[in-house]
Amino acid sequence: MITPYFVIIPLLAAFLIPFVAKRRDTGAVLLSLAAAAALLGLSAYAFFGLSGETLVYRMSAWKLPIGINLVLDAFTSFMLIMVSLVALTSLMYSVKYMRRFDRDWRYYSLFMILVVGMNGVVVTGDLFNLFVFMEIALFAALALVAYGGQAHEFEASFKYAVMASISASLILLAIAVVYSATSTLGLATISLSLARQSPLLVLWVGGLFLAGFGLKAAAMPFHAWLPDAHSSAPSPISAMLSGVLIKTLGVYVLIRLFYNVLGAPRLFLDIFLGLGAVSILAGVLLAVGQWDIKRLLAYHSISQIGYIFLAMGLGTTLGMAGAVYHMINHAVFKSLLFYNAGALETALGTRDLREMGNVSKLLPVTSGTSMIASLSISGIPPFNGFFSKLMIIVAAVQAGQPLLALVAVVGSLLTLASFMKVQRYGLRGGRPVEKLVGHVDGAMKTAMIILAVLCLVTSLLVVPGIREVTLDPVVKVIMDKTAYATSVLGK
Amino acid sequence: MTLYILCFALFLVGLYGILTKRDLVKIILSSGIMGYAGNLMIVLFGYRRGAVYPILEKGKEAAAMVDPLPQALVLTSIVIELGVTALLAALAIRLFQKYRTYDITKIRRLSG
């Protein structure tokens, strides 16, 4: 029974760190790195060892209508791999980056609590438990956004906290409505019970969930907090927030609820399509005009989340494969881009693209990996972004939505335009830079190189033989819709 | 039915406060009101008219008891609410130290 360890390991690490760390942060760094590596190993084992089965862990051995259960299926372990991968590289990157503040163990403790929250949301099979884990992740995220202690960081964190409290209230209201209608809180039992209720109830519950978790995923009308929060946080945390937090708390929960619990009602899929199309275009248009590199990247997160929403809304197998594939690809290249931005900020002391210049000689690793990441996010072959966007566009055409396919193509072109701007001004500009104010150390470079290699490696997931063992089991879990309930209840 | 509508009205009061108030402290209070409305709604859903406390004794039927689970949920949710409020208040204090004001229209270093 490995399921509870995805929560136990980071939680234990978070509370052991204060004991092992005295005045220096060495103990905290080693412990958190070990925990993240263990999680990565465990989640890889869960994904490849289970081969499509569903593993149910009953807490305190209570059966479902009464107890809380943890569910480990292909989709869950796929998300766990994503979280632990980004967490591990982000911790490697943090060691040098965070020493600008001081050698503080509290950062690593909060980081581990953030991982607890995300892993918990992903593994739990209970609605209220999901709410609690979501709040744990948000508390840690809010504290980490404000970690630098500057005025604009508190401002961003406050904005994020107010948005989070609105969405938490909406989700709590939705949970109340679900509980009063079904008298149960397990996702599987809710799914069975809702199928027998009036369709009006599904509308009511679905609307509240869409607003609540849509705020977390930052699709277009709910996006206002994201650019501030993601650009004000320290770079490794921006990578965690943009790379995995909006996906676990937003997209994962929406897919789980709307596909596996509510059975993919057509009305909500159409809403996903609309939100996706608006986010793709508006996100990228706002991004083109930005001069702060991290703000530009944050707006691109909205645009890329739009692609995932669009693919979710198509409701076809290929579309869902595109959504899942784009999720992991976005986690890889967006984290890499935030590491690049952090490295540039460390080396040049500025985040404004206009004040940067030609750094390709002085920072070969940073400029090389940022070129790879820019090509990936703009969808240039042979990098991973090309294949997932192609999958989404083909799925849109097949589903009879050529207009949406056009939106996706235009969004991709505008993405290319804005990253040409980053390359032109930020890394290969006309003005040569003579000396650097800070040093990018080996661990930061390693983290960037690992993700740059993964940008190429994940494009292999599209190869049929590899796709059958990686993406297809995940898509099967999602597209089987309410078969989730029967496999969890074991009937 | 009236109770549910009043409860929802309380929720909307909180939402209105968050969206329109300019003072940080009032925003925090509004978010609290919204949270209370949610909690109240959960407790209301567990309420049954004329029912007794939910302890199973000899000669008592489970049907005539209020639902105990929402009360447990609300306790958890109140604790979370407390944490959020404390965090918001801490952030408001730090913002005041930096900007010397509680007015959000004057706290605008981030925009666009």
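The mean pLDDT of chain A is 91.
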